[in-house]
UniProtKB/TrEMBL annotation, chain A:
Residues 450-580 form the RAE1/2 domain. Residues 130-214, 609-681 are annotated as: Disordered. Keywords: Cytoplasm, GTPase activation. Residues 196-207 have a biased composition (Low complexity). The keyword GTP-binding does not apply. This is RAE1/2 domain-containing protein. GO terms for cellular component: cytosol; nucleus; Rab-protein geranylgeranyltransferase complex.
UniProtKB/TrEMBL annotation, chain B:
It comes from Esox lucius. InterPro entries: P-loop_NTPase (IPR027417), Rab29/Rab38/Rab32 (IPR030697), Small_GTP-bd (IPR005225), Small_GTPase (IPR001806). Coiled coil: none annotated. It comes from the Eukaryota. This is Ras-related protein Rab. SUPFAM superfamilies: P-loop containing nucleoside triphosphate hydrolases.
Length: 681, 213
């Protein structure tokens, strides 16, 4: 009587005609899928992974460890299965190996043993907690988890064991383990620090330290509080992503925080960049003359097009040359180039001015920096679009992939795909991420990469009155020839890390492996705990350099520069590129809109979805069909073709085409109408 | 804000999830509760996101209840995190006429507990709804079994409901909201650390206009 619940197969989908199939759940694919679904197109969205957002995903700490594991394992081998191809058709295999992530390296510096917690607390030392469990002859503290999976398993076991031992100030009030029964000094004496500890066993309570020591155990235990993005970007408050979120009403699914500070690394120090008017006037590091210079220059940039005489002589020169001719101090040139325009010195003058202008125009829309960051991480954003797609009937299927395309020999078009279970699904369009395109379909290979590092640290890079700062840090090349690095430091109120820690993302365009590119910056800006014997930072009482508790490095392939013409693919197959290295998401959004225009040239891109908040029935109010109900509730308004009544309102008339489509979709794609006779209300 | 003075009135916004197998009546329950409507003409949910019910809980408390329906992705059990995040309560629904939908309840409950937690790490309060009780065959009364099941699986309780005949829907909602309010009173709201921003509400910061000049 009832259709069976479908677990993970696409059986029911196979009968659908004219579906648009999306492979991989990255930002561009999700936006296009939502846009298609919204205007009544049938959408099937699949991803071989078990999580949403593809390479845009964010993970809990434990989820990230699984992700790392996944990339250590070799992908599924290509079974050259005989595909279900009929006469006049040919199969075009997709790549089954995800090679977009490379050079994954993990380092854990947080201690695992409770006694080290005690020790760290006692000494108040920033660097006092990384101790190898067994004395290591080289004194090597860093342990690359990737080199041995057993290490991680061991840690997982430890994580469980140690919880019961956790004690002292580390024990959070909410913990359920009976820490109270374990006296703080009752640690197992083990390792190199044994003697020292016994010599001075001052209990933690007598010298309460304001900073809690974060152990690896604690990080694992509080792992769900982390949302660690694979891609680190911010949202320009007047950028195309923010505009699209507002226009489409997808913004209802997310909340944001303003980035609170722009920082830069200069002369071995982290400094705040004055960018808003209040910042400039309030700045202590600028002289009065500098304040005036900077205001004058920024005011000019805001509408520089109005004053061509100021820059036209420099149209063929670099922005840096232009800055040199302006009356600006070295200080100011650094701020403008690296932190406001955020360009390299060699970009042309107009590009530099435009970047500065964009920055300035984004100021003040939501706060005193131009940037927003989504709560729970950037990985929320593709999911918001997926939710919108699903709400309008899109079907989502994870752990499922497409093995090959079925091409019609005559038209050269893709008429169907064959999924990873060998089932054939006909389609009208196929949207796929670049990573699935095999080498045979590429005319040239672009091997650009992004270098990424993710750090969990114990304090902010620039402590201030508030612990809850969200900072963008621009780091110019630390040595000649090394890359410009962008760093984003997130605090716990962004819901991306546990209280007491900071999550730091570093990003640059790769010149080498992620670790080669980024480790020099990490070691300058952070304290990397060394073996206990050395304790280099130990003496610096009150040292404000944050310590790294855990670090991940990896490279991600950046195909954003690959042009449509460099693929040899049918015209109804559309390729989306992977995330780029830029700070904003404009590339992904513009690409999504361009692909949508190819798919459905006549349709509007992401029209506003009806707002459910508009349907408000007061508990005691009149019941029934109040005015605006049909309009506001699409399920009610779009029941089936037969029920679509002649439009009473202008808006309904406009929506009529879409209404029919959605209704059709409902019966075809879903195909589980209850077979009971319909007796309308 | 019936009765009480406005200054004393506390307002709450609660996100509540409604989950369960296909065709158990999730959307019907939401429509019955929020709009006092019922339609036997069944259709899978398209275009419905969440529905809002405003409850004058008492003279000092106004509760805005957001009931989140699961969308097309449900069939594969792949909900986005957007669906789960910051939910403070849930209904898990099954259909008394179909045993298989009851068997799936544990799966849904487990999924729920693994994907969303209260700020203090405990599972969100959830209530089991045995829907379509108007079609129940007589004699299949197993209250104690159900009570035990709820205890074992971590439900606060269960209700036999009928969205069609409007049985127990309000009662179940009231029961869940009571429990959510209990939690809410026990827990300080974690958001003392600055404002969250909704994009459609531009802040008029002190630094209005374009910042400099």
């Amino acid at each position: 009587m009832y259709p069976k619940q479908i677990a993970t197969s696409l059986d029911n989908v196979i009968t659908i005609r004219n579906v648009n199939i999306f492979l991989k759940l990255g930002l561009s694919e999700s936006v296009i899928a939502a846009a298609c679904s919204r205007v009544g197109q049938r959408v099937l969205h699949v991803d071989r992974r078990s999580y949403y957002a593809g390479n845009w995903a964010s993970f809990t700490f434990n989820g990230l460890l699984s992700w790392i594991e996944e990339y250590k394992q070799a992908g599924p081998s290509d079974e050259a299965a005989q595909e279900k191809v009929e006469e006049g058709e040919e199969a075009l295999a997709l790549s089954s190996l995800d090679t977009s992530i490379t050079n994954v390296e993990v380092f854990c510096y947080a201690s695992e043993e409770p006694e080290e917690v005690e020790e760290g607390v006692k000494d108040g030392a920033a660097a006092a907690w990384s101790v190898p469990q067994t004395p290591d002859s080289e004194g090597e503290v860093e342990r690359c988890l990737l080199e041995s999976s057993s290490v991680e398993e061991e840690e997982a076991v430890l994580a469980g064991d140690e919880v019961a031992q956790a004690s002292g100030p580390d024990a959070g009030a909410e913990e359920t383990q009976p820490e109270g029964e374990v006296p703080p000094q009752a640690y197992e004496t083990q390792g190199e620090w044994q003697d020292e500890q016994q010599a001075s066993p001052s209990p933690a309570e007598s010298q309460p330290e304001p900073k809690k020591q974060i152990t690896y155990t604690k990080i694992v235990k509080e792992g769900r509080r982390f949302n660690i993005d694979l891609v680190s970007k911010l949202m320009y408050s007047r950028g195309s992503l923010v505009d699209l979120l507002i226009k489409s009403n997808v913004s209802r699914y997310a909340e944001f925080k303003n980035v609170t500070r722009i920082l830069t690394y200069r002369n071995g120090k982290v400094e705040q960049v004055p960018c808003s008017r209040a910042d400039v006037f309030g700045s202590k590091q600028l002289t009065v003359v500098e304040k005036r210079m900077l205001m004058k220059f920024l005011t000019f940039c805001l509408d520089f097009e109005q004053h061509p005489e100021e820059y036209q002589d420099f149209s063929v020169h670099s922005f840096w040359d232009f800055l040199l001719t302006k009356k600006l101090t070295e200080n100011l040139r650094h701020f403008i180039l690296h932190s406001i325009a955020m360009v390299t010195p060699d970009v042309c003058t107009v590009e530099g001015l435009r970047a500065t202008q964009h920055f300035l125009r984004c100021l003040g829309r939501y706060g005193n920096t131009p940037f927003l960051f989504p709560l729970y991480g950037l990985g929320e954003i593709p999911q918001c679009f997926c939710r919108m797609c699903a709400v309008f009937g899109g079907i989502y299927c994870l752990r499922q992939s497409v093995r090959c395309l079925v091409l019609d020999k005559e038209s050269g078009k893709c008429k169907a795909v064959i999924d990873s279970n060998g089932q054939r699904i006909s389609c009208s369009h196929f949207v796929v991420e670049d990573g699935y395109i095999g080498l045979d379909q590429r005319k040239n290979v672009d091997s650009r990469q992004i270098s990424r590092a993710v750090l969990i640290t114990d304090r902010s890079i620039l402590p201030s009155d508030s612990e809850q700062q969200i900072s963008l840090v621009t780091v110019p090349p630390v040595e000649p020839g090394s890359p410009v690095v962008r760093m984003v430091e997130l605090c716990s109120s962004t819901m991306t890390c546990m209280p007491g820690t900071y999550l730091v993302h570093l990003t640059c365009s790769s010149s080498g492996s992620a670790r080669e590119d980024l480790a020099p910056v990490v070691s300058r800006l952070f304290c990397i705990p060394v073996s206990p014997g050395e304790e280099s930072k130990e003496g610096e009482e009150g040292s404000e350099v944050p310590s790294v508790l855990w670090a991940l490095y990896f490279n991600m392939r950046d195909t954003s520069a690959v042009d449509r013409s460099s693929y040899d693919l049918p015209s109804n197959v559309h390729v989306c590129t992977s995330p780029d290295a830029a700070l904003g998401s404009d590339h992904a959004i513009k690409l999504a809109e361009a692909v949508f225009r190819q798919l459905l040239p006549e349709e509007e891109f992401c029209p506003p979805a009806p707002n459910p908040e508009d349907i408000i029935y007061d508990g005691e109010g009149p019941q029934g069909e109040g005015p605006g109900f049909e309009e506001a509730d699409p399920a009610e308004a779009l029941p089936s073709q037969g029920e679509v009544e002649s439009a009473e309102r202008q808006e309904e008339a406009e929506d009529a085409g879409e209404t029919g489509d959605v209704a059709k979709q409902e019966t075809v794609a879903v195909a589980e109408n209850e077979p009971r006779p319909a007796s309308e209300e | 804000m019936a009765g009480g003075s406005v200054s004393e009135c506390k307002e709450y916004l609660f996100k509540v999830l409604v989950i369960g197998e296909l065709g158990v009546g999730k959307t019907s329950i939401i429509k019955r509760y929020v709009h006092q409507l019922f339609s036997q003409h069944y259709r899978a949910t398209i275009g419905v996101d969440f529905a809002l019910k405003v409850i004058n809980w008492d003279s000092k408390t106004l509760v805005r209840l957001q009931l989140w329906d699961i969308a097309g992705q449900e069939r594969f059990g792949n909900m986005t995190r957007v669906y789960y995040k910051e939910a403070v309560g849930a209904f898990v629904v099954f259909d008394v006429t179909r045993g298989s939908t009851f068997e799936a309840v544990s799966k849904w409950k487990h999924d729920l507990d693994s994907k969303v937690k209260l700020a203090n790490g405990s599972p969100i309060p959830s209530v089991l709804l045995a829907n379509k009780c108007d079609q129940k065959r007589e004699g299949s009364n197993n209250t104690s079994l159900m009570d035990n099941f709820c205890k074992e699986t971590g439900f606060l309780g269960w209700f036999e409901t009928s969205a069609k005949d409007n049985i127990n829907v309000d009662e179940a909602a009231r029961f869940l909201v009571e429990n959510i309010l209990l939690n809410d009173k026990g827990l300080p709201y974690e958001e003392s650390n600055g404002e969250r921003i909704k994009l459609d509400q531009e802040t008029v910061a002190a630094e209005s206009k374009s910042g400099c000049c």
